[in-house]
Write a structure and sequence with these properties.
Elements lengths: L26 E5 L8 E4 L2 E7 L2 E6 L11 E3 L2 E3 L6 E3 L5 E3 L8 E7 L2 E5 L1
Antiparallel strand pairs: 1-10, 2-3, 3-4, 4-9, 5-6, 6-7, 7-8, 9-10
The chain binds FE2/S2 (inorganic) cluster.
């Protein structure tokens, strides 16, 4: 009978075994005009959305499933390509797993024609 070995496997996957929390020090700036109405855009560590004209919201881009950054905003859906989770532009809530919770809200502050984003 072979002795059971302790296997150590290098993980080259995207954060699959190293979930991370949203970066508490993240910040970014984006022009309001760069955020599509009824949709959103990924800016560094954030996803910025404009669910209704002139109403902006921001979330951490860190997927609550296993910590990949979300990868795309298509229409009213924020998508994570790592395992297929999806989130609503309207409020960051989870609309398709495997994530079980929505995106973590961030702070968005309007400054003239720009938006300041902070964790
Ligand atoms: S990290 Fe698994 S779906 Fe986003």
């Amino acid at each position: 009978m072979a002795a059971a070995g302790v296997g150590v496997t290098a993980c080259s996957g995207p954060d699959e075994h190293n979930p991370r929390l949203p970066d508490p020090n993240a910040q970014a700036t984006i022009a309001k005009s760069a955020v599509p109405e009824g949709s959103g855009v990924i800016v560094g560590e954030f996803v910025v959305t404009q669910p209704e004209k002139g109403e902006f919201a921001a979330y951490s881009a860190a997927c609550p499933h296993q910590g990949c950054n979300v990868t795309d905003v298509v229409g009213d859906t924020i998508q994570c390509a790592c395992h297929g989770s999806q989130f609503a532009v309207a409020d960051g809530s989870m609309t398709q797993g495997p994530a079980t919770t929505g995106l973590t809200p961030a702070t968005v502050t309007e400054d003239g024609d720009e938006l300041q984003l902070t964790a």
